[in-house]
Amino acid sequence: MEINTFIVRSLSLLLILSFVECFHFHEKELESEEGLLGLYDRWRGHHQVEDRSTERFNVFKTNALHVHQTNKLNRPYKLELNRFANLTTYEFANTYANSKISHYQALQGPSGCNKSRSTYGDVKSLPIRVDWRKENAVTIPKSQGAC
Predict the structure, then answer these.
(1) What's the CATH fold of domain 18-98?
(2) What letter does residue 119 receive in the DSSP assignment?
(3) pLDDT grade, residue 9 (50/70/90)?
(4) Where are the domains of the chain?
(5) For residues 22 and 16, is the Cβ–Cβ distance under 8 A?
């Protein structure tokens, strides 16, 4: 019975780890054009990206340097190079975050919304941070493609 439990747990862990898409790099890879090109080729292999154009490499290089500079600031979060690292912000937004709702309408909420009434009344104190995953309000981020 213990062996079956061990096998099930091992396979479960293997399954979970197969979904993790971490891609780590070292600061030394960012010090030269050759290092960045090697990093780009490693990233392409990891994410199975075939396009090796100069334009895609330049976008990747800018994003990799941004990730590194941001992480050096020791903020409470860390950025990583994901499968979108060779896309500009504009390309990503147009492909994966395209919305049919105008920007103004999205900020204002639905028409006819009574703004004078708050669901929560006069809240005096709020927590500094909330991990909505732990509250079961959201799930971990997943790629939904160009929907």
Answers:
(1) Helix Hairpins (1.10.287)
(2) T
(3) low
(4) 18-98
(5) no
Instruction: Say what the pTM is.
Output: 0.56
Q: By the 8 A CB rule, do 102 and 41 touch?
A: no
CA-closest candidate to residue 39, choices 50, 30, 48: 30
> Exposure pattern of 25-51 as b/e (b: 16+ CB <10 Å)?
beeebbeeeeebeebbeebbeeeebee
Q: Report the distance separating Cα 22 and Cα 52, nearest Å.
A: 21
Transcribe 34-62 into DSSP letters: HHHHHHHHHHHHHHT-----HHHHHHHHH
CA nearest to 70, candidates 61, 79, 82: 79
> 1: which DSSP letter?
-
pLDDT in tens, 89-118: 888 888 877 655 555 555 555 555 555 555
